[in-house]
UniProtKB/TrEMBL annotation, chain A:
Subcellular location(s) of the protein: Golgi apparatus membrane
Assigned keywords, A-Z: Golgi apparatus, Membrane, Signal-anchor, Transmembrane, Transmembrane helix
Source organism superkingdom: Eukaryota
GO CC term, one of those recorded: mannan polymerase complex
Compositional bias ranges of the Basic and acidic residues kind: 404-441
Gene Ontology biological-process annotations: cell wall mannoprotein biosynthetic process; protein N-linked glycosylation
Membrane topology: Single-pass type II membrane protein
TM regions (residue ranges): 53-71
Main location: Golgi
Keyword check for Transmembrane helix: yes
UniProt name for this protein: Anp1
UniProt similarity note: Belongs to the ANP1/MMN9/VAN1 family.
One Gene Ontology term of the molecular function aspect: alpha-1,6-mannosyltransferase activity
Automatic annotation (TrEMBL), chain B:
Assigned protein family: Belongs to the ANP1/MMN9/VAN1 family.
Cited InterPro entries: Mannan_Polymerase_Subunit (IPR052086), Nucleotide-diphossugar_trans (IPR029044)
SUPFAM superfamilies attached to this UniProt entry: Nucleotide-diphospho-sugar transferases
A GO CC annotation given for this chain: mannan polymerase complex
Keyword Membrane: yes
Protein name (record): Mannan polymerase complex subunit MNN9
Keywords: Golgi apparatus, Membrane, Signal-anchor, Transmembrane, Transmembrane helix
Length: 459, 380
């Protein structure tokens, strides 16, 4: 096309010596100035418009690419025909750095933003979950600093489904103060053949193997969910009925490596109104140490059974309802209903032995091992939380009998009243009679034998 | 002349194309080195990596997480999700790759050796299934080691996707190491051993119990001074499907007599117990420990270091052990989950890795060694 225009200007279409190869700037200027546009203005304007549109499109495309990094990955390979590989594109953070000296745990963790891992093992616990979640919501420790972890094992009811729904609800709460931190739900069945109802749970023979399986479950939960960011670990059973909302702070304030409160449980009045529940928190005694010496390497001492008379001072029995809740007591074995421990205790390797460790297993073995590694282990005798009262089969039968008795007596009462009405034709003191009747029924010392039997079998 | 005319009248399309090309070149020049691996293979691995990633930074350290966390419709950052982990379906089997079992390689780091890292990167187990964990003391040496480590990590994690590890955690210890000197002579003195190994136990426990995630199937303990292993180390050790298995740790050295390179035993902590050793233990106080490799304390244990038969090496040969060393040690995650740890106190007169073997056995697990399968320790 160019040649076609060039020839009418007088140049030969054929090379004529070196002249053809050297284009002097002067000539170039001449060519440019002498050649006037031929296209019609309309065509030119259209072309300019086209040019501008394309330029605009290109610039906006570049802008878009810069503004949305995620588009970059999609667009660049297409443009560069696969020459440029999306190497920084995974958008994944793979490296994490932690300084463990910053997560030692201090007495005012909530002010320093210390993270707490709250651990709850669950088995057939759907009936306890609503109560447990109401406790969770009420906790005063900043929720975003609490990471929750649950282990659901060998459950035949809908513990898992219910738990998931309730957790989802908590995390979707529009109030950001209600949302917790990391939430892990771990399913793992240990093939537990041991029945979980109250009767068999506390039978002496079942105890050692049951405790070892419990220990295993606890260790699985802890090892899968403890993170380098945790300063504290709080173990809390789902079947706690009453506990102060400030319990994490209350236990933390003592700034000890392992801290447990006293655990009691309410009872029906005919059983004495209340009772120590957790007998696993104790101080070591000479008798128990001597007993341990005589036992086989794999034996496990379980507290609270006549078979092993240890004469240990128990945290539970030292409770004074009007005592100073801040009072501390050194312990060697602890119970697992509610344990606050510094994460560094677990990091050092202290765990819930699923074997006989110094003749103990699970939480008692945990206390023993923590002591062995020179950590401080304390209990608070006058700071009490209340475990749920689940009536045993005996209790249920007894309650049934009492109910029948009560109905019979009411019947009798009514008949007598009717009789009196007939005789006196003056109806009176209906309510009063009923009230006094109830009073006699609830005599606290009515079942002393039963009471003491219960006291020794709750572990 | 002809050229000049065409420049003037260039069509806008070609200009735009040129601009795009220029832009493409700039991107090409600025982007880090292009991966050499085939695009399709790494596309598969990046896909898996994306799927495996956690949504939120609050997640197990064995998972990478998305750089931009989820946001609620009202613009507020969403609360961490409820994450389910079903550990019933998780395996640790002889066919680890086929079952996509995740490995956590744990290293207590005293010094950084490039040889160690190069060997690690060379391991042929799919890297998207491998997470790393390091713990280093907060000392001058520790700082230097971590700085060197971070440099190496940066290179690998921004390099070819298939070479990148799934996730890496670096921990700094919260306690002082008892001994500043890492000199081999001082380090191996018997009096210093107990203290050193107890501190080592704490470091190991801190590392394993904070970095092990719910999806970890195997834990490989690999010391920072192991500079040479077969590339198939993980496959070879998992293949035996044993709860605890340990290869033989040797060292290459230059024999000045025969004037050639040779190998010699390095780790003596893998042994089969002896009656003499048990008698020694029976007479000990509760806080005393048995140590291997010291003339003052003849234990007459059978040491795996002396078991290889160099005339007929069989890398698959297994022997049952009672104590293990930790220079290279493959453990099923379940063993640690059940509570087996490295006792930082005399546990049946044993500490650290030897105590770990004892505890694993108390929990009902068996412990094995591969006398004819070697890994090599750095020669100082």
């Amino acid at each position: 096309m160019n040649r076609h225009y060039a020839s009418p200007k007088g140049y030969s279409a054929y090379p004529r010596g070196p002249k053809n190869f050297s284009i002097s700037p002067n000539r170039l200027v001449i060519i440019l100035s002498s050649f006037q546009p031929r296209s019609q203005p309309a065509l030119r304007r259209r072309r300019q418009l086209f040019q501008r549109l394309l330029l605009l499109g290109g610039v906006s495309l570049l802008l878009v690419i810069f503004i949305f990094p995620s588009w970059r990955a999609a667009i660049i390979p297409t443009l560069s025909l696969g020459l440029v590989h999306p190497s920084g594109d995974l958008q994944l953070q793979t490296v994490r750095y932690y300084d463990l000296s910053e997560v030692q745990g201090t007495e005012k963790g909530w002010e320093r933003g210390e993270r707490v891992l709250m651990l709850t093992p669950l088995r057939d616990a759907s009936s306890h979950l609503p109560m447990f979640f109401s406790h969770l919501r009420n906790l005063t420790y900043p929720h975003n600093l609490i990471d929750l972890a649950f282990l659901v094992s060998d459950s035949r009811d809908d513990t898992l489904g219910m738990l998931s729904r309730m957790l989802q609800e908590v995390q979707n709460d529009p109030d950001p103060k209600m949302n917790f931190g990391e939430i892990s739900v771990i399913e793992k069945d240990f093939g537990q053949k041991v029945q979980q109802d109250v009767e068999s749970r506390h039978g002496f023979e079942a105890q050692a193997s049951r405790r070892k399986l419990m220990a295993q479950a606890r260790n699985w939960l802890l090892s899968a969910t403890l993170r380098p960011t945790h300063s504290w670990v709080y173990w809390r059973d789902a079947d706690v009925e009453t506990a102060p909302f400030t319990i994490i702070e209350d236990l933390m304030r003592h700034n000890k490596d392992v801290t447990v409160p006293n655990v009691w449980r309410p009872l029906p009045d005919w059983l004495g109104g209340e009772q120590p529940y957790d007998l696993n928190s104790w101080q070591e005694s000479e008798t128990a140490l001597a007993l341990a010496e005589t036992l086989d390497e794999d034996a496990v001492i379980v507290e609270g059974y006549a078979e092993y008379a240890t004469w240990r001072p128990h945290l539970a029995y030292l409770r004074d309802p009007f005592g100073d809740p801040d009072m501390e007591m050194e312990l060697d074995g602890i119970g697992g209903v509610s344990i606050l421990a510094k994460a560094r205790v677990f990091r050092a390797g202290v765990h819930f032995p699923a074997f006989s460790f110094e003749k103990h297993a699970e939480t008692e073995g945990f206390g023993k091992m923590a002591k062995r590694m020179k950590f401080s282990v304390i209990g608070l005798p006058h700071y009490t939380i209340w475990h749920l009262y689940e009536p045993s089969v005996d209790d249920l039968r007894h309650m049934e009998e009492m109910e029948l008795e009560r109905q019979a007596r009411e019947q009798e009462e009514r008949e007598r009243e009717l009789q009196e009405q007939k005789e006196n034709s003056e109806p009176k003191a209906h309510n009063a009679a009923k009230g006094s009747d109830k009073g006699s029924e609830e005599g606290p010392a009515a079942h002393p034998a039963k009471d003491s039997a219960k006291g020794s079998s709750n572990v | 002349m002809a050229v000049a005319r065409s420049m003037r009248r260039a069509s806008p399309i070609s200009l735009v194309l040129a601009a795009l090309l220029a832009f493409g070149f700039i991107v090409f020049m600025l982007s880090p080195s292009t991966p050499s691996v085939s695009a399709s293979a790494s596309a598969v691995s990046s896909q898996q990596r994306q799927e495996d990633a956690a949504e939120h930074p609050l997640s197990p350290p064995t998972k990478p997480f998305l750089k931009s966390p989820a946001v609620r419709s009202n613009g507020v950052q969403a609360a961490p999700p409820v994450v389910h982990y079903n550990l019933n379906n998780q395996t640790s089997s002889s066919n680890a790759i086929a079952n996509r079992e995740r490995i956590l390689i744990l290293t207590p780091l005293a010094r950084f050796y490039q040889g160690y890292w190069d060997n690690l990167v060379k391991l042929s187990y799919p890297h998207e299934l491998v997470s790393l964990g390091f713990i280093a003391p907060k000392t001058k040496d520790g700082n230097a080691a971590v700085a060197a480590l971070e440099k190496a990590i940066h290179t690998t994690q921004s390099g070819p996707i298939d070479n990148r590890f799934a996730s890496i955690s670096i921990l700094r210890q919260d306690f002082e190491p008892p001994l500043q000197s890492q000199d081999e002579k001082v380090r191996h003195k018997m009096s210093a051993q107990k203290e050193r190994r107890e501190s080592m136990s704490r470091a190991r426990n801190s590392l394993v119990f904070t970095t092990m995630g719910p999806s970890t199937s195997w834990v490989l303990w690999l010391d920072g001074d192991i500079v040479e292993t077969p590339a198939s180390l993980i496959q070879d050790l998992t293949k035996h499907n044993q709860p605890v298995i340990v290869p033989n740790c040797y060292q290459r050295y230059y024999d000045s007599h025969s004037k050639k390179w040779d190998i010699r035993p390095y780790d003596y902590n893998s042994w089969i117990d002896s009656e003499q050793a048990q008698n020694l233990a029976a007479e000990m106080g509760p806080d005393e420990i048995l140590l291997e490799g010291y003339a003052e304390m003849p234990t007459y244990r059978t040491l795996m270091a002396y078991l290889p038969d160099f005339k007929a090496l069989d890398p698959h040969r297994m022997v049952a052990l009672d104590g293990v060393g930790g220079t290279a040690l493959m453990v099923k995650a379940d063993v640690h989950r059940d509570g087996a740890m490295f006792p930082a106190f005399p546990f049946f007169h044993l500490v650290e890795t030897e105590g770990f073997a004892k505890m694993a056995k108390r929990l009902g697990y068996s412990v094995f060694g591969l006398p004819d399968y070697f890994v090599y320790h750095y020669n100082e």
